[in-house]
Amino acid sequence: MTTLEGVLAEVLDLPVDDIGEETGRDTTAEWTSLAHVQVVTAVEGAFGVTLTTREISEVTTVGRLRAVLRTKGVSA
Amino acid sequence: MTAAARWRELLRSGRRPDVRVRLLGSFTMDAVLPHLGTALADLGVVAEITAGPFNQIVQECVDPRSETAALEPDVLVVWPRLEEFWGEGGLDEVASAATMAAGRLCARLVLVLPATPVDRPLGAGDASNPTGVAASAASARERVRAAVCDAPGAVLCDAEETVRAVGEQSAYDHRLGVLFGIPYTELFLAAMGQSLGRSVALALRPARKVVVVDADNTLWGGAVGEIGADGVDLGPGPGEAYLAFQDHLLGLRANGVLLALCSKNLEEDVWAAFSRREMRLRRDHLSAWRVGWRAKHEAITEIAAELGVGVDAVVFVDDSPAELAEATAALPGLATVAMPADPVWWRAAVDTAALDRLPPTADDMARPERLRQDRDRDQLRQTVAPEIYLKDLEIWVEARDPEPADHRRLAQLVLKTNQLNLNGDRLSGQRLAELCASPDHAVRLVTVGDRFGDYGQVGAYVLELGDRTTARLGLFLLSCRALGRGVERAMVADAFAVADRHGIGTILATVEERQRNEPARRFFTSLGCRVGVESTVDAVDAPSYVSVRESGVGRG
After folding, report:
1. What is the ipTM of this complex?
2. Which residues does chain A have within 8 Å of residue B34's beta carbon, measured at their own beta carbons?
3. How many domains does chain A have?
4. Which NCBIfam families match (chain B) (predicted)?
5. Contacts of B31 in chain A (CB under 8 A)
């Protein structure tokens, strides 16, 4: 099954175990603004959802991404 | 795997880049980088790619101390968007800055012809407005196309084509545009990566010269050996696709591609099918053929040798995956096109980088006819003694200063000539144009012919006049089609005549060792030069059997 951690691990090129709820743009060097675009594109593709512009600008941690996915009926 | 992940792996693989590419654009070009990098890798180009700062195209192009200038790129990719360069002359200014920068940096330019913006104040009425968005974009695009096509060595890549291919709805991502300056979807960027990759390859490599086609189920439906010439399918119905494919082949031929046939059949069966009234491709369109039962890689190797090209200049079209695999395994430089089992899909099959080519020069277009003349020459050679042959050819040589219209041919000679090539320097088209205009250099373009026809513009050299006491050969090239006919001696004699007009009696040259330039080393050694060392070239006269035409006393 596709997990949010799995998607992020591939995009950010990090081990899955290094990805936690607090992993985010402020704490992870790999999570650059270009990587953020790739994170959003990969998450949308993997879970079949579309984020709004505001949501894209706000999902700066794994926890926030998971919360936004939950509002769209996805538990990842 | 995403393009970004693949690109990351390629960078880690320790590969040694052979070309440096710089991306400049009016949006975040970092987003384009992995797509172009992976597309180039698939085309066999190992590139080091960097993206310039956001929306700084003109600044990066005009400032000689810019980051881009310091990188000394081999290829400059410039992608302006009409959204950022809307208004009178905006796009023209970018194109002109890019062309000048590429010239100054001796880089090849790949300029993206931007797509028409999507915003239409008049909505459906825009189509009726001669000064509307669509009309203004079209005229800006065409002005830039015309200007950049004239710049030697520059290649255009049309973003509009890619928008059309993926669809406008799937091309733009306005969310990412607002937040990150990346107004496009991954889907569109991936497609543009492919398209840009092909354009970059087109700017770097000579086009393939020969298309070798199989016969059964490639030129017609069915096996002629089994169902006979009258039985093979040429339509009406599914077989019509083969006729359309034949028309496509004739279009290639009209642009200078040599067509050849390679078929496992009895020759009489094949020619019987060729004489079918419906056939568009005729036997006399073929520059070579091998019909028989040997392995196809052997036949292709022979065809290439007969046509005087390397196998890396050949594209092989066959419907059989086994034949294609056999040929590719034996001949790694060969490119292949698989004719699909349902022939109506041939258009997708021929949409491949191996068949990409720039608009042909007059010289390219004359190639199939030149080959026919070569056959006549061969007949003469077989009937007379070698010492009489050269005299009987009535060879003539004409050297002259190139006109601007000749610059593309000059650039092409620099890119394509391997054997009689003094130093293998692949000067860019822009650099060549500068040399042609320079008072400190004499550039000469050499046309050769004989009683059977023209060889075309086959030779060129550059003489650096330097301190006006000695001259140096900067370039010396002669296409292999004119080798062994005393033309190179006539060119050296011309170089001495040009030097003499400047009061210079000594010409120096450094003949370098390159992979395939043994003929150049042999020739210059015969004129007293040493390989890898700057040496004085012996003065020579043109051979007695070569007549030198004197129309070319120009600025030199």
Report:
1. 0.95
2. none
3. 1
4. FkbH (TIGR01686), HAD-SF-IIIC (TIGR01681)
5. 34, 37
